[in-house]
Write a structure and sequence with these properties.
There is one protein chain. Helix 3 crosses helix 5. The chain has 409 residues and is mainly α. It has 16 helices and 12 strands. The termini are far apart.
Length: 409
């Protein structure tokens, strides 16, 4: 194993490591195998990035549609694929030496990403100059140490470009929600420093006010609750704009049998996923809850929505949003409520305006359907199969809704 750990990574070393049985190795040999696998992982990563750069370079479209198939085949979000392709592009250009170091297993993929993100706003000569300053010691650095040296090198190489880099960074501001375990989620924001300080000051002020009444919550808990309260106030405003005919709100789906306590099936929180039956019941029975009936088949796929007094056109829109829940393109997580409603078969070609021929598509993937050779087809089971310009097929299907298990009384 020591020889394998010392050898440069290659297809042969990857093959050799697959025959090693960890349980049969000595403690020292296991560490050698771990070292070898780390270098081989870097080699495989470099190989993939090399391929991504070639695929990207062969894409003549200004909208970079090849990224959509990269996302589909890797089963990642299109936004994540865009980041991967941007990294591959840099490693095929001004950061070529970084890709070579990755091939050699001298650095990790995370080291390469840190460097690429830092030099993204710079021109090619400046990016290469930063690389030259930090790469020689990259193999000795942890990712955190490497990141500090990269930031310092950027300031040395291009001290006058700080304001330009700040403007470019501001363009990347965003808020991201990521599902976590135990009914929790992570919400983080990339903001200008002043904006982050403003949000922090507001939360601190609200948290301090709540403490005056002898509140037993920690400061962190009060700040977190204050943030949710601020959002609650926005959603409670009746003047808020509507989209797809619906006012902004959170949406939870729960089986009727769970709602009345016959069972404890998980509910579904739109944009998050499964939540406990207790949480689903609490949300569904809250003072501001607005109920709507959803009828599903035995597989949990939507077949109808309650109509109430809605106009037929709004009922159809409600049905598609509730059924698809997000853009039907592979890997896309854009909520259906913020998507376009698209005819699978063009209306001009005789396509009907009905549930079987309508789907939710975000604006980018709506354009992809009409401007490229990406072609969808709807299955009877609620799935959508997308055929790519290269002829590969990718199937998507919304997760099933909770099933009623009402017992006959």
């Amino acid at each position: 194993m020591a020889a394998l750990a010392a050898a440069p990574p290659s297809a042969d070393s990857v093959l050799r490591s697959t025959y090693a049985v960890p349980e049969r190795l000595s403690p020292s040999a296991r560490i050698d195998l771990l070292s070898a696998l780390a270098k081989q992982a870097a080699w495989v990563e470099a190989r993939q990035l090399e391929l991504l750069a070639v695929i990207d370079a062969a894409d003549p479209s200004p909208d970079r549609w090849a990224t959509e198939e990269i996302a589909a085949v890797l089963r990642i979000a299109p936004s994540t694929a865009t980041v991967r392709v941007a990294l591959a592009r840099l490693l095929a250009g001004p950061l070529l030496a970084t890709r070579q170091a990755l091939f050699a297993g001298q650095i990790t993929a995370r080291h390469a990403s840190v460097l690429a993100e830092a030099v993204r706003p710079l021109d090619d000569p400046a990016a290469t100059a930063v690389q030259e300053r930090v790469l020689t010691k990259g193999a000795e650095d942890t990712v955190a140490e490497f990141a500090r040296r990269v930031r310092r090198a950027v300031l040395i190489v291009d001290p006058s470009g700080q304001e330009q880099r700040h403007c470019a960074a501001v363009d990347q501001r965003r808020v991201v929600i990521t599902p976590d375990v135990d009914g929790m989620a992570q919400l983080w924001a990339l903001l200008p420093a002043v904006g982050a300080a403003t949000v922090g000051a507001a939360l601190n002020a609200l948290a301090a006010e709540s403490r005056k009444g002898g509140d037993a919550r920690t400061a962190d808990q009060r700040r977190a609750d204050a943030l949710v309260s601020m959002a609650d106030a926005v959603l409670a405003d009746p003047k808020r704009g509507r989209h797809q005919g619906q006012a902004p709100a959170i949406q939870v789906t729960v089986a009727a049998s769970t709602l009345i306590g016959q069972d404890d099936q998980p509910g579904d929180l739109a944009g998050y996923g499964p939540i406990s039956a207790t949480t689903a019941r609490r949300l569904a029975t809250g003072e501001t809850a607005n109920w709507r009936t959803l009828l599903t088949d035995d597989a949990g796929q939507l077949v109808d929505v309650g109509r109430r007094s809605h106009r037929p056109r709004q009922v159809l829109r409600d049905f598609i949003v509730a059924r698809d829940r997000r853009c039907t393109f592979p890997g896309c997580a854009q909520p259906a409520a913020r998507c376009d409603l698209d005819h699978v078969r063009s209306y001009r070609q005789g396509g009907a305006t009905d549930p079987a021929n309508l789907q939710a598509l975000c604006r980018r993937h709506h354009r992809a359907k009409h401007r490229t050779e990406w072609t969808p087809s709807r299955g009877r089971d609620g799935s959508t199969t997308w055929t790519s310009p290269t002829g590969h097929a990718y199937r998507t299907k919304p997760p099933p809704l909770p099933l009623d298990r009402l017992e006959d009384s």
